[in-house]
Design brief:
Elements lengths: L2 H23 L19 H4 L8 E12 L2 E17 L15 E15 L2 E12 L5 E10 L2 E10 L2 E7 L7 E6 L5 E3 L3 H7 L7 E7 L13 E7 L4 E5 L2 E11 L6 E6 L6 E5 L5 E10 L23
Parallel strand pairs: 9-10
Antiparallel strand pairs: 1-2, 1-16, 2-3, 3-4, 4-5, 5-6, 6-7, 7-8, 10-11, 11-13, 12-13, 13-14, 14-15, 15-16
C-alpha cells in the first residue's frame, strides 16, 4: 500500500470523527447571521477534520512574485492556517479561562507578505477568520505599513450584516465604515486561498460569485462586488513546484474580460494550495509545507524551521 493511500485512509477516518465532534460541539454560526439552514446543515468536512485539532498550525511557504509600481518583487510569502477558540462578543482569540458560553471555533488564515521596493520595504498581513462549522467568513483584518504610513482594515459579520472599517494615511480615506453585503455568494478575494480548499474538490464544477476585491493595499476605497465565476478544471494536472510534483486541481476565477486568476489545490487532503497565478503576472509556487506549533519556536536557532522540511516527492 502506498504512503498516499495510507494518508488518504487516515484522513478519511479523521474526517468522520471530526464531523461527529463538530456536529456535537460547534455553535452553528447563528450569532453572525450564517446562511439559512446552516445550523442544521452538515458541518464543512474540510474544517471539521481532526487534523486541525493536533495543537499545531499548517505553515506553507511560497516562492512568490508580487507586482508593485509596475515591477515584479520577489519574496517568500507565507500562508498559515490554525484552529482557534474565538469570542462571539469580541471576535478575538479567547484566553484559556474564557467563558465557554461565549466561545465558538474558527480556522484562521494568516497571509504574510514582506518585500523590498528600492530603499523601503512593505510589510503586510491579512487575517481571515472562518466559522469552523460553515466556513463562513466572520472577520477579516489587514495591516499594511511601509515608509509612507500605516493602514488598518477590519471586516466583521454580525447578525447577518457585514461591515468594513478602514483607517489609512491617504487623503480622503483617513477613516470610513462601509456596509458590505453578507451572503453565501459574496466572497472576499483574500479569503480564497483557504476557502477554495474547503469546497468539494470536484472537477468540472462552476459557481457564481459576487467577488470583493483584495484589501491587501494601503488605500481604503469602498469595496464593490463584481460578478465572477469560479470553475474547477475538468481533469487534474501534474504541477511541479519547488516543493515537488503534485497532482492538482486547477480553479479559474474569471471576472469580466480579463484573463482568469488560477489556483491549484493538491488532490490529496488537506488540499494544500500548490500554486497561484494572478492576472497581473504575480504568482506563488509552494516551497514547503509543514505543521508546527510556531508560537513556541521563538528562541535563537529556531530560524532553521524557515528552511522547511525538504523537497517532497511527486504525489
Amino acid at each position: 500500500m502506498t504512503m498516499a493511500r495510507v494518508a488518504s485512509i487516515l484522513w478519511g477516518a479523521a474526517a468522520i470523527a471530526g464531523l461527529l465532534a463538530a456536529a456535537a460541539a460547534c455553535p452553528g454560526g447563528e450569532p453572525f447571521g450564517a446562511r439559512a439552514g446552516a445550523a442544521t446543515a452538515a458541518p464543512n468536512a474540510f474544517a471539521a477534520n481532526r487534523l486541525w485539532d493536533d495543537g499545531r498550525a499548517e505553515i506553507d511557504a511560497y516562492q512568490a512574485s508580487i507586482r508593485r509600481y509596475g515591477v515584479p518583487r520577489l519574496l517568500t510569502a507565507y500562508l498559515i492556517v490554525v484552529k482557534e477558540d474565538f469570542s462571539k462578543k469580541q471576535l478575538v482569540k479567547a484566553d484559556p479561562d474564557h467563558d465557554p458560553a461565549d466561545l465558538f471555533t474558527v480556522l484562521k488564515l494568516n497571509h504574510v507578505i514582506n518585500y523590498q521596493t528600492g530603499i523601503y520595504s512593505y510589510h503586510q498581513m491579512a487575517s481571515c477568520f472562518f466559522d469552523r462549522t460553515t466556513m463562513d467568513l466572520v472577520k477579516l483584518s489587514l495591516t499594511s505599513n511601509e515608509w509612507c504610513g500605516n493602514t488598518y482594515k477590519e471586516y466583521t459579520r454580525r447578525g447577518g450584516r457585514g461591515s468594513l472599517h478602514v483607517h489609512t494615511y491617504w487623503d480622503g480615506m483617513a477613516e470610513a465604515t462601509y456596509d458590505v453585503p453578507a451572503a453565501p455568494d459574496v466572497v472576499f478575494y483574500d479569503q480564497l486561498p483557504l476557502w477554495i480548499r474547503s469546497l468539494p474538490q470536484t472537477p468540472g464544477t462552476t459557481r457564481a460569485l459576487r467577488l470583493l476585491p483584495s484589501g491587501i493595499d494601503s488605500q481604503g476605497p469602498k469595496p464593490e462586488p463584481r460578478p465572477a465565476t469560479l470553475t474547477a478544471a475538468a481533469a487534474e494536472e501534474l504541477v511541479v513546484v519547488p516543493a515537488g510534483g503534485f497532482r492538482s486541481l486547477r480553479w479559474d476565477l474569471k471576472t469580466g474580460e480579463t484573463r482568469p486568476d488560477s489556483f491549484w489545490t493538491a488532490r490529496d487532503e488537506p488540499y494544500v494550495l500548490v500554486a497561484w497565478d494572478r492576472a497581473d503576472g504575480s504568482g506563488y509556487r509552494l516551497k514547503w509545507t509543514q505543521r508546527l506549533a510556531y508560537w513556541r519556536l521563538n528562541h535563537p536557532g529556531d530560524e532553521k524551521y524557515l528552511e522547511g522540511p525538504g523537497p517532497a516527492a511527486a504525489r
